[in-house]
Amino acid sequence: MNRKRSGEQNAESAWNTPTGKVFALLQTLADNHGARSLSDLAVSLGLAKTTVHRIVAQLQDLGYLQREPGSRKLSVSPGLCRLCMDLIAASARLAPRHEVLRALAEEIGESCSVGLRVGYEVGYVDDVAANVPLAVHFSAGRRAPMHCTSIGKLYLGRMSDAEWHRYLASNPLRRFTERTIIDPETLRDQTQRAARDGFASTEEEYVLGVVGAAVFVTGPGSRIYAGLAFHAPAARLTHEDALRLRPHLEGAAERLVSTFDS
Question: How many domains does the chain have?
Fold first, then answer.
């Protein structure tokens, strides 16, 4: 009992250090999924505004926080997102989940990747390229649009109506190939169906000649950890072939869950 109480005291003391306050501020921004004003942050953290102002100024100087355009609210910057992606990618390659990904790539003979939603993009945190001719893969650290990637479509389908409209307002649907879906209503309908079904696919919508499919890696309480996808040349894999590989994706996604929980 004394040992536990001592550990709790040590943890509390650590959060009261300058470093602890920085991470507490970043955690508050992450927990609220959006921008916060300096006053809001001070209240949430129970810190003086002068203290929060000093931390914010330092993080802005480092390029990790930014002011929202036309607002006094603060949000994480692309620089901090890149740092987080690099850290996740580095840990993923050393973790058991990379072995699950490698086994899946060998099993289906196509390149596979794990991706997360990063703002309004998909960030790939781990990948394995298939050892076959014309292999296609999305390397770790790469970012891609949501509306024309299979993982992105799953995340789009789970957006509320309000968030969907914010997404459209700040992200015009760019056409990458002649098959890219740029009609908002068509995309909304397709992505919502994909999210309900738990399976999304793409047919040469981001890169000409590339097809792909994805499922969510979902843990207890329907918590979404990431998206798991494979990518292949259309010359080798038809859309119907991609559908038949769904059970392989879902099996690997189940094996990945424990690597996120552990």
Answer: 2
